[in-house]
Amino acid sequence: MIGLAMIEVSPLAAPGAEPWLARLAAAGLDLWIARGDAAELDAALVGLVGRGSAEPWSVEVRGRGGAVRYATEVALAADGHDGPGGLVGGPAAVAAVLDAAATTGSAVLLAQPPGERPRLAVVRGPRGVWAVLAVRPGLDPRALVPAAWSARPAPPPPAPPPARRVDRRLAALASVAATAVLAGAVVATLTLRRQGGATAVATTSPAATASPSLAAPATAAALPGSRPAVSFGPSVAFDRRHGVAVLTNGAGAGGQTWTWGGRYWSQVHPRSAPDSRVGAAMAFDPRHGDLVLFGGGFTAQQPTAETWTWDGTEWARAEPMLQQPPPAEFAAMADDPVSGALLLVTGDSAWSWDGTAWHQRARVPGAGSVDTEVLGLDSASGSDILVRDSRGSVTTWRWDGARWTELHPAHQPPAPEPEFPELIATDPVTGHPVLNVSTTPTADSPVSQTWTWDGADWTEQPQSSLGAVPLGLLSDSALGTVVALVDPPGGSTAETMAWIGERWVRIAGTEDAGYDGVGPTPRDGTGSAADAVSGRLLLVGGREFGSGAPLNPLGDTWTWTGAAWSRWDQAGPPPRSGGLLAPDPSGGVLLFGGFDQTRVQPALLDTWRWGAAGWTPLHPAVTPPPGSAGVGMATDSRLGATVLLTTCCSGDLRPLDERSAMQTWTWDGSTWTLRHPAHSPLGEAMLVDDPVRGRVLALVDEVDTADTPVPPELDTWAWDGTDWQDLHATTAGRFRGAAADPVTGDVVALSDPQEGVGGTQLFDGRGWLRRPLPDEPDAAALGTPMLVDPQLGRLVVLSGPSGELTEEWMWTGQAWVQLDLSRPPAAPAPAVPFHHGGYPPPP
User: How far apart are CA 249 and CA 237, in angstroms?
Assistant: First the structure.
C-alpha cells in the first residue's frame, strides 16, 4: 500500500502570470499547488478524479505525433477501448507523457461532477514532484480524498471507490508514463469537450519546466514556467558542467537564483545565497567545474569583496586566505585559456582564482579612471580580450597568460551610456567575443549596438540592436550560441534572445510563443522551399493531417516572412500533395509533380516556376514519361543543376526490387534531361544538397520487402554529376525532413517519431550520428518543412502539433531553439544572398 503522508498542499500565488493557468483562474477556479513523492501523488490523483468523475466527455490529445498516440492507446487498452475513436463519449480520460530522458513531462487529468463546472485540473510536473489543482471556490482539495493530504503519518488508505471504467484508465497512469518514455514521448495538450461540442476547459501544460523546490516555503511556491523579474545589474553566466545558464542577484532581486536550460527559467532554492547586489562579476571556472561570483554593490553601501561559488545546487561563500581583490562592482571576469584559471580585472589590477585563493597578476597598463571594462575569452586565438572605457576613450587589450598588450584595431566600439555597462560573451561558432553596447537605453525605445571581434579588428553588425535593454550576455555552449538576457519594452520579466552571427532572434519562453494569426490549415505532404528573391519561405499544397483525412489534396500556396503567413490568391498549380520543390538554377523556385489520389493516374508530372510575379507553368521539350512519379528533388549548388529521381514506369510489371533502377533527371533551367548513371538507388528517397562536399545526397528508404527491418533502414547515396555512389552510411528511421546546415556543413535530418527512433540525426560526410536533445520540433507530418531561412541564414523547421505550422525552430549547429513568434520583430532583416540553394560556394 502507498502511504499519502508526505504531500504538501498550499494556495498557488500569482496564477495569472502563466496563460495556461490564467484560463483556469479566469473561469473562477482556485488554484493550489501540491508537492511530494511521485508515487504518492499518483495515488492521490487517481483517488481525486475517481471520486469526482461521472459525466461523459470527448477528449482530444495533441502533441508530438506517434509518441503521444502510442501513450494514449496504452491508457485506452487498459479501459477496453481499441483506438482513439473510443475516446468520444467515454468518461474522463487520461494521458501521461514524458520525454526520453524522463526529465520533463506532464499528465493532465480533468473531471467534472454532474451539474458543475470543472472542479479539478491536475498537471503533473517533472518526475511527478508537483501538481497544480484547480477547484471550485471554497472547496479545499485536502478534503477531497480522506487522509490523502497531510504532513503526519498516514492512516490506512481509504477503500477504493466502486470499480468504474475511469478508474481502470487512471490506474494505467504509471504504465502509460513508463511506456511513453520508451516511445520517446513528449509533452501533450489535452482538450476536453462536452459531448455537445462546447469546450469546457482547455489547458496547455508547460513543456520543459522544472518543479518547485520542496525546500521552498509552501505559502510562496514558484509558478511553473515563470521567469525572473527584471532587475538592474544581475549576474549571469553559463554553467558548462550542468549545461544551464545561471542568473542571480540584481537590484531588488532578493538573492534569488534562477537557471535556464534553453527555453524555460526555473527558480531554485539553495539553503544559502549571496545577498541581493548589483554588478557582481560571475564566470565559470573550468578547472574546478563551478561558477565563481565576486564583488557587487549594495544600495547606499560600499561594494563588497565577497567570493561565492555555485556547484549546481548550492552556493558557498569562499574565505580566501592571504590577499584578495579590492571591493568592486561591475568588475570583469573570464577564464584564462593559458593557465586554465579564472581571470578577474577590476580597475587596473588583475587577479587569478585557483579554487581557494586569489593571486595578483600583472597590472593593466594605463593607470587612470576606468568607467567600464569587460573581459571576454577569445578562444580562437587562445587569449582574453579586455575592452575598457576611460572617460569616453575606449581601448582594447589582450592577455596572453602573462602580460597585457594594447591592441590598436582600425575600429573601436563606442563608449556605453552611463549606468549601462558593456556586455561581452564568446560566440561558440566563431570562438571570438561578441560585444553589446547600449547607446540609447530608454525603456520606450532601447537601442544597442552589437560588435564582433575577428582577432584583429572590431566590426559593428548592422541591424544588430537588441530592441530591449540588455541585462546580461552569456556563451551558451549547449545551444551553440550567444544568449542575451533583456528587459523588453513594457515588460516586467526578463526575456532571452539568441545571436545568429548578424542579428538577434527572440527565443520562445512561454507556451504561447507560437504564431496565432491566419495561416495554413494543419496538413502533411506539403512541399516547401526557400525563395531567394523575396527572402520568404514557400509552402505548396499537401493534404489534411491525420490517417482518416480525405484524399482530396490541397491547392493553396503560402509564404512565410518570419513573422506572418501570407496566402497567394491568384492562379497557381492544381491541388497536390507531395509536390517536389527546389531552387531553380535560373532563378525562383522549381515545382515538379506530386500526387492527387482522386485521379485515375495519381502522379502529376507538370513543372512550374515561382518567381517575383507568382506562378508560371513551364512546358519543357522533354519531361518524365507518363507512369513516372517524382520521388525526390534537390538543386546541386556546385553544378547549378536540379537533380530529380523518379520511379518508372507503370508498364513495368516486375516487382520493384527486380527492376533495373530508378530514373535520374536533371534540370538546367529550361528542360529536363534523362541521365544514364551506371548505378542508382532504389526505393523511396529524399534528396538533399550537400554544398560543403559538392554533391547531392539521396536518403533512401530501401525497397519494402518481408525482410525490411522495423524501424526501416535508410541508406545514403551521393550524386557527383555523372553517377550515383552508395556511401554505405546507414541509419534507422524514416526521415520527415532533411537539409544542410550552413553553420557546420552537416546534413541535419528529423526522423518520424512513429518509428520509435524519432529525433535529430546528423550526417558529417562519413556516417550518421543520432543526437539526443531535450527539445526539438514535431516531425509527425510528412514533408515537414525543413530548409535554410534566407532572412536568418540558418536552418529552420516549420512545425507544430498535429500537422500545424505555428512554430518555427532554428538549428544553432548544436541544438534546436524555438523562436518566439508571438511578437514580430521590429523590422524585417534583409535577405541573406543565396548561391544557388542558399549556401556559400564549396571550398
Answer: 12
